[in-house]
Amino acid sequence: MAHNGSIGGHADMSSGRGINRCQGTEGDEPLSEAVVVLRNVRSAVGGIVDFECVSANVHAERWLGGEEGSLVHNRLLEEAPWAWDGGLFSACVRVVTRRAPEIARVSRQSPMGTVWLLARVSPCDDGVVLFLEDLTERMAAEEALRRDHDLLHAVIESATDAIYVKDVSGRYILINPATASAFHRAPREILGRTDAELLGADRAAPTLAHDREVMSSGHTATYEGAEGGPGTDRIWHTTKGVLRRGDGTVYGLFAICRDVTARRRQELEREEEARFQERFIGVLGHDLGNPLAAVRLSSAALLARDTLPPEVRRVVARIDGSAERMARLVKQLLDFTRARMAGGIPLRPHEVCMEDVCRRIISELEPAHPECCVRLEVDGESRGIWDEERLGQVLSNLLGNALQHSPEGSSVRVRLAAKDSLFQRVEVHNGGPPIPESLRPRLFSPFHGVPPEPGQPKPKHQGLGLGLYIVSQIVTAHGGWLDVASSADTGTCFSVTLPRVTRPLGGPPGKTA
């Protein structure tokens, strides 16, 4: 606020009426502003040695006055000694000398700490008019803002992620060292330029498309790929969003880009290694089939001889049993490979009676578990279009697990429920300890075997841990689903639900093999 008017005579100054004339007529003075009129006090040689207060408002009395008496008619340095060290006195002297207004920030010490004041000094005929405004809170806010800015700047500068800001025209206005490193350029070569200027229109097209999408939607979005980040020789995980002013208008775009090149390469290497392992397992399983078949044919031929000595017969029978077990393992490996690499286990569906399949599997497994009995319950029609061999695998695996984990002298219940004309349900229930909660999420994962219950002997033949995985794949290939419920009170129940009609993979509906 400029105050170029004259104070007038000394009588007006001593009465205090000169303040209003020095303030002007605009009427925009803040109510909390201190106003004081000061008259020069000169030495014998004409130098200014102090200022005498001619008039002052209540704020000036509080900020400049002493503890006793009024500020008016007293000298500035006597009432406010801090004016000398705080810079206020020198500012008043400069205004008197130059006859030009001046604005300065001055400070004084108080019991509460440093107090900052904004001093606006205007020349008058025989002194100055001084306006003081308290800046302490504003200065504290500015200092806090400056500290926050310095902290944020330090974080951005030291971040390993590429962080940048663009204006609405796509020009870089802020970058950190990681961004400059991604472009392989110095910061001065990037700031003020667009991606098209830095990379060329074709290479910058994905990045510009992402920017337009975020700017048009106004929502933060995440992208990942070799295109769309700073530079084009890395794979980036990028988060982009808009910057808004207080009124909601968009003035820029920010991005945080993390280099995930090493992670993606490791993922690709692991995927390739897994594919190689699965191919190896498939080839191994296929190549083992022929020699195992030869072993089983030879053992069968030997066992068919009536003249075979008993001790040799026992050895050959042991060979045949081991070869049979190896053949089952090879079959599981082949099924695993088909499920993982061939798009699922292939099916050959035709009309099947589920009850007949269950009775066949029960008759095969019961002799190996004489300590348990199996009860079959049939409720409704049990015919449908399924793959009979694959259903035999499902039932053999579920029933074999149930017999293995059932307490001695207990029974296993197999129930066929067909109340729904569209679906067939098969339940295999056994008693004994429940499945541990920690194992349930991995129960149908490949190469995962269920350990024996505490106090129970380890199974004589430990499998590959593929049984339940293959069961789940066969059920899925039929278009069905598999459930399991297990508790200490009710035991364990595996439930298979199958659609009444299953079509082969890729075949037309209703066509059966």
Overall domain count: 4
Number of strands: 17
Secondary-structure arrangement, i.e. CATH architecture of the largest domain: 2-Layer Sandwich
Strand order across the largest sheet: 2-1-5-4-3
CATH superfamily of the largest domain: Histidine kinase-like ATPase, C-terminal domain
Taking all residues together, what is the mean pLDDT? 80
Q: Brief description of this entry?
A:
This protein has 513 residues and is α+β, with helices and mostly antiparallel strands. The protein contains 15 helices and 17 strands.
Describe this structure as you would to a colleague:
It catalyses: ATP + protein L-histidine = ADP + protein N-phospho-L-histidine. Residues 1-26 are annotated as: Disordered. One of its GO terms (molecular function) is phosphorelay sensor kinase activity. Its main location: membrane. Keywords: ATP-binding, Kinase, Membrane, Nucleotide-binding, Phosphoprotein, Transferase, Transmembrane, Transmembrane helix, Two-component regulatory system. With 513 residues, the protein is an alpha+beta fold. It folds into 4 domains: 34-135, 2-Layer Sandwich (Beta-Lactamase); 143-261, PAS domain (Beta-Lactamase); 264-342, Up-down Bundle (Methane Monooxygenase Hydroxylase, Chain G, domain 1), CATH 1.20.58; 350-450 and 462-499, Histidine kinase-like ATPase, C-terminal domain (Heat Shock Protein 90), CATH 3.30.565. The protein has 15 helices and 17 strands. Strands 2-1-5-4-3 form a 5-stranded antiparallel β-sheet, with helices on both faces. Strands 7-6-10-9-8 form a 5-stranded antiparallel β-sheet. The chain is elongated and about 150 Å long. The model is unreliable at 1-31 and 506-513 (pLDDT under 50).
